[in-house]
Design brief:
The protein is an alpha+beta fold. It is built from one helix and five strands. It has a single domain, classed as Thiol Ester Dehydrase, Chain A (Roll).
């Protein structure tokens, strides 16, 4: 699934590029939205994000594409591959800026892991 967002001035760091913490927030939110749509009615929380490595800086005005695909489902958790691409103002092609994997676990009302439905 693909989701998109626009980088605006309030998302920039003191160097004038996208702040890494904003990117991490967006990665988590977008992956969670995909997981929630694939597992309706399940309470899912993030338990991990693999390799945090920013490949390229992101300019103001860039359109980010979050490509999110389920990689692995276990008994109580599910992992998604997330790749973020930037389409910068005036660019003819997008560039990869951030790849990672995000894992969510399903919790019951008491905060204990609960099996996911077959998927």
């Amino acid at each position: 699934m693909n989701n998109f967002t626009l980088v605006r001035p309030e998302h920039l760091n003191h160097h004038g590029y996208l702040f890494g913490g904003v990117m991490l927030k967006w990665v988590d939110e977008n992956a969670w939205m995909v997981a929630t749509r694939e597992y309706p009615g399940c309470s899912l929380v993030t338990i991990g994000m693999d390799d945090i490595r920013f490949k390229n800086r992101v300019d103001n005005g860039s359109i980010l594409r979050f490509s999110i695909d389920r990689q692995q489902q276990r008994k109580t958790s599910v992992t998604y591959a997330v790749e973020v691409f930037a389409d910068e103002p005036g660019a003819k092609t997008e560039k990869e800026v951030f790849p990672t994997r995000v894992t969510f676990v399903r919790l019951d009302d008491n905060g204990r892991p609960l099996p996911l439905p077959a998927g």
